[in-house]
Backbone:
């Protein structure tokens, strides 16, 4: 793409339905609502702010450097399954995550990421508008959970770390993948693997400019023979990646209740802390429940089609397909 001024890119994106001076004078913080879910602060942008985020994603953030060989989060055509399946043949696994990943991405750090990518982004005067772009993607000195710009930006924030750890792992015949804040490293023989925790900590500190720390309470070293659970999936002894048994049980209970007892189905949805049902009537809760079941089924379809076939045999093709496509009454 030939470099454009940010104003020219704005005119292309909005086809004269909006004006660049509106974009420059817009106050993103004032157009953001905040709520708390599972002890995390969630930012909800207004519809107009979402339009501006879409513009920034398309013309700026989509050009940020991302190590696509190891990073599988928030990218079209990639999934948690892709991040896990590369480890299926391994015998020893290191799994950890980055503590408070999004909140650790400060305005200062975000500025450095954008500055390091100036030559990749085809906006000729981006350096002039850097502060305004930061106003749109950083709120209260952190990358907010809930902004459409946050996923793409978070992928690029650890580019140097991803490259350095990938090179280290390649040298030692390890497999490395990252899904957002989750880091997985595995090996077929485990030689020298006991030192991997220190290596990751050192590289993360160095290439993350001291902004990031591992969540030591969630850091695990697992050897084959134990249950290998990664990103909500399990690697079976047969080297097949499947859905965790807890998810299977939950899904089968929901399908059973949907078929046999709608009241129990609704009760299960209401009791699920991950589903917001406060203030909804039974019809709306039912819709939420069907959406949840459909999400599980689509997740399973990506990971383990054999299990999806088992569900169809157990509950019938019609009901599973109806829930899969949310084509229910």
Residues:
């Amino acid at each position: 793409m030939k470099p454009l001024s940010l104003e020219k890119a704005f005119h292309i994106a909005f086809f004269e339905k909006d004006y660049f001076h509106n974009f420059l004078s817009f106050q993103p913080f004032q157009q953001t609502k905040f709520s708390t879910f599972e002890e995390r602060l969630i930012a909800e942008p207004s519809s107009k702010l979402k339009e501006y985020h879409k513009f920034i994603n398309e013309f700026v953030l989509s050009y940020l450097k991302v190590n696509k060989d190891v990073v599988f989060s928030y990218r079209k055509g990639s999934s948690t399954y892709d991040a896990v399946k590369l480890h299926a043949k391994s015998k020893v696994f290191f799994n950890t995550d980055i503590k408070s990943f999004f909140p650790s991405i400060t305005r200062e750090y975000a500025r450095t990421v954008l500055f390091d990518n100036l030559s990749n982004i085809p906006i000729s005067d981006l350096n002039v508008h850097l502060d305004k772009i930061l106003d749109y993607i950083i709120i209260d000195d952190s990358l907010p959970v809930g902004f459409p710009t946050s996923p793409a930006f978070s992928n690029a924030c650890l580019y140097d770390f991803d490259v350095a750890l990938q090179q280290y792992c390649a040298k030692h015949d390890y497999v490395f993948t990252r899904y957002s804040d989750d880091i997985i490293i595995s090996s077929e023989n485990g030689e020298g693997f006991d030192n991997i925790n220190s290596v990751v900590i050192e590289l993360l500190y160095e290439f993350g400019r001291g902004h990031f720390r591992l969540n030591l309470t969630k850091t695990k070293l697992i050897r084959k023979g134990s249950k290998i659970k990664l990103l909500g999936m399990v690697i079976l002894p047969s080297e097949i990646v499947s859905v965790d048994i807890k998810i299977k049980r939950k899904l089968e209970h929901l399908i059973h209740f949907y078929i046999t007892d709608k009241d129990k189905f609704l009760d299960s949805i209401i009791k699920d802390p991950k589903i917001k049902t406060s203030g909804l009537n039974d019809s709306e809760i039912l819709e939420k429940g069907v959406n949840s079941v459909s999400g599980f089924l689509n997740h399973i379809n990506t990971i383990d089609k054999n299990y999806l076939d088992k569900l169809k045999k157990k509950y019938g093709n019609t009901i599973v397909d109806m829930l899969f496509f949310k084509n229910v009454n």
About this structure: DSSP finds 14 helices and nine strands in the chain. The longest strand covers residues 32-37. The CA atoms of residues 176 and 185 lie 4 Å apart. The radius of gyration is 22 Å.
